[in-house]
Amino acid sequence: MLHVRFRTFRAINEPQLCKKFLEGHRKVLEIYDIAMITSNKVLWTTHKNTYVILVESLENGKALGGARIQIADDELALPIEDAVGKVDKNIYSIINQHKKNKTGELCGLWNSREIAGYGIGSIFLTRAAIAVAFHRGIHSLFGLCAPATVSVATRAGFTIERSLGRQGFFNYPKLNLVATAVFVDNLKKLKNATPDDRECIQDLIRRQNQTREESGPKGNIKIDYHLELNSESHAL
Question: Which end of the chain is more exposed for a tag (fewer CB within 10 A), N or C?
């Protein structure tokens, strides 16, 4: 059975792990000729409000996937602002509106080809990222989804942000590709999540460090979740 670790850290505290994340992500993007994607910029590595989940093989330590949670602030634009702002400037006012209650973006999701089909780079990273965001005091999250991951996001509680673009849809990162803007409000309640997703996410919120045997599309996998950064906590 495939056995991986989800390691969580603050970007500015772990430059070597950030490098490991970037190298793995870049290789995946180059396969699809989309290395220019906004979430792949290196500025986040020195951003105090960016947190990272790195997926590593427990067999050899190789980076197999990852995701980032970037909190909206006045220092670094969210990747969705850079991507969507070129065609719809409403994104800026929408982000500012949600900044009052602390918002951010789930971005930079990726997984290597060798673990494709297990749901690591979509289902399980999305759930884990919401739990990490909750413990950072984030109330809401934005995201940009490829067509294949929209259903994963909606099961986890996101809805399509139809006030942007063409009812939430954009040609990004290339004209022949489509991205969907999504948003989830109130990470505590996750009222639009499926019961299974909500239960899993809330369990990860309650127990940030645990090992779970998960059932993905391609079969069962074992995940060591290390989602806790420190003693900060927000009671569920």
Answer: N
